[in-house]
Write the structure tokens for this entry.
Amino acid sequence: MRAALMTGRQAVGVRQERDDHQERGVHREHDVEERLSATEQGATVWLTGLPSAGKTTIATALAGRLREEGHRVEVLDGDEIREFLSAGLGFSRADRHTNVQRIGFVAELLAANGVKALVPVIAPYADSREAVRKRHQAEGTGYLEVHVATPVEVCSVRDVKGLYAKQAAGELTGLTGVDDPYEAPEAPDLRIESHTQSVEESAAALHALLTERGLA
């Protein structure tokens, strides 16, 4: 009886030791996941702002740094999306909304599969951007909204694509921020005043936000 009791106690001890060992193993696996999550976790980073605000330039600079750190990154260029995904859409409010939702769908799909999707796209209307955010929230996918808050006066001088000059010459109508509305985010995750700092500083500020959120 005593021998059987001792055997039972020993068996309990063995089970406890095994459970402790398994628990430590789970913790170790969890720690590994935590260490890897920054590079493995996808998210969408939407950079909204006026034409020539510097959205694509900042996104490209950030993408290079993230790739060097081992992240999978895609930059969804607005012009390329217009050409290949949204061909046929115009620039009415309804068409702009549809374009943004298409981009948001692709971005969320990438982000859900471990890619940092950087989206330097104007997305002028608040309800369109909010719909994209809600899609990400519904899928449990990370989403950050960044306002590249360059004033129109600075953007018109930069005029990377010549849009402001065409609008001033009467060759173009519906230019966002000039004769078509731009609804600036009221509470973005980050606001960047690119006209007051270098591209590197702007990209660093965005990288700091990703780090703060456990994404870099």
Notes: Confidence is low (pLDDT under 50) at residues 1-9, 24-34. The beta strands are 43-48, 73-75, 116-120, 142-148, 190-192.
